[in-house]
Amino acid sequence: MALGTRLGRAALAVWLLLPLVPLVLWAAADRWTAPAVLPQAWGTAGLRDAVDSGAGTASLRSTVLGLVVAALATPLGAMAGRALAGSGVPAGGAVLAALLSPLVLPPFAVALGLDVLLLRLRVPASVGVVLLLTVAALPYTTVLMRTAYAAHDPGFEEEARTLGATARRAVLAVQLPMLAPALAGAAFLAFLVGWSDYVVTLLVGGGQLVTLPLLVASAASSVGNEAQVAVLSLGSVLPPLALLVAVGLLGRRR
């Protein structure tokens, strides 16, 4: 590996991890007052406060929400991306623009407007949150899978068919393994939309679905509990970061 590549990766790692250093220090600090450079007292008070505030249950809800959104948005994005990568969709540019529209509209305005509609239709709060977050994740999964299908060579499946494989077998044994890194990346982005959402979960969930981002915002609005906020923030950042590393390793292996 070239020296420049190594230095670039090291610089990127420092850029991503350096902001976590103050959070780690605050999370382990029982007392840290100015002008001290480091905490004067170390301990686990922040962790205890975070657990007492319901961090475990909120993390579980965020995980389930992210997984459900990923399970819905990834196959939908793959189907849309495959159709848009070909030439069989009339007015493909307009269709793609419609799919990307959730990125243009303000999330607060969209959630507030659709919340009234969902209430009138008597859609359960949790179902409404999942539906809106799936729509919000579709632009990411569609664009990523459209790029993957555009670069994919269908000749591999045709070769498998000539060797006796059925169409279904060719898709499962040839196409999906070749597109696995793109599918993993799309699933990661969709999971991140569900895991990190605050606006839709707050407005549409109506306080019934308390996820980790809601808990972080609630703790951050108070004063004097910096250690608790740091622990909750680390709990919000580290799982997606670990998942990102796993997706990157999968891409390298492929």
Please indicate the count of domains.
Answer: 1
Enumerate the strands of the largest sheet in spatial order, edge to edge or round the barrel.
1-2
Q: Tell me, what's the shape?
A: globular
Full CATH superfamily name: MetI-like
Looking at the overall shape, the CATH architecture is: Orthogonal Bundle
CATH topology description: MetI-like fold
| Average predicted local confidence, pLDDT | 85
Keywords: Cell inner membrane, Cell membrane, Membrane, Transmembrane, Transmembrane helix, Transport
Protein name: Putative spermidine/putrescine transport system permease protein
Transmembrane segments: 64-84, 96-119, 125-149, 170-192, 229-251
Subcellular location: Cell inner membrane; Cell membrane
Topology:
Elements lengths: L2 H15 L2 H8 L1 E3 L9 E2 L2 H8 L2 H31 L6 H13 L2 H14 L4 H27 L3 H8 L4 H12 L1 H17 L2 H7 L6 H9 L5 H28 L1
Antiparallel strand pairs: 1-2
Helix pairs in contact: 2-13, 3-13, 4-7, 4-10, 5-7, 6-11, 7-10, 7-11, 8-9, 10-13, 12-13
